[in-house]
Amino acid sequence: MRTIKLLFGLFFIAILSISAQDTDASNKVGVYLEHNGTLLQYEYAYDQLLQMLGKQFPETTANATGWEYLRKNRKDAIEGIKQALIPIYQKNFTSSEIKEMTTFYQSEAGVQLLKDRTKMTADQKEALNRFYTSALGEKIIKKQSVLSKEVSAASENWSRDLYETAMSLLKN
User: Fold this and answer.
1) Which of 92, 134, 88 is nearest to 109 (CA)?
2) Would residue 166 count as lying in a domain?
């Protein structure tokens, strides 16, 4: 009986450890998506959809609840696409690679790259070149077609679901 309790305890600890590691890896990818500009693109897409729908379905008393929901749902919708993208990056990159990618996008060169590539200094351009000619940079380039395909599929699902939800809330 003691052996069973001990095995159960070890199993439980192992499960908690794996879950904690998975959460840590997910958090790292989430931070990366925040710093590399990906989530900003989805925020922009969300805002553009609402703007387009605002022309098609101006707010009225009949659809006010739908509009309120869509305005309040923005954060949850962005979290939804983030959660859809995390496994894609986890499947294609190690945790240490994700950390290295995040570090680049947190650097002066990475920040300026996202802000305005045309205004990068010579040092920033050199840092960008070093990043993309590194082993990790080459891996990113090599995986670009796979990533594009998988990210596109996740984006299409997200966009379709968001549009269908918005339409169901705003149509009279």
Assistant:
1) 134
2) yes
Phi and psi based region of residue 134 (left: phi greater than 0; alpha: psi -120 to 50; beta: remaining): beta
What residues make up the domain containing 126?
25-170
Number of domains in the chain: 1
- 18: helix, coil or strand? helix
Model pLDDT for residues 84-114, shown as the tens digit of each residue: 999 999 999 999 999 999 999 999 999 999 9
Chain segment 157-171, per-residue pLDDT in tens: 999 999 999 999 998
Spatial contact of 129 and 111, defined as CB atoms under 8 Å apart? no
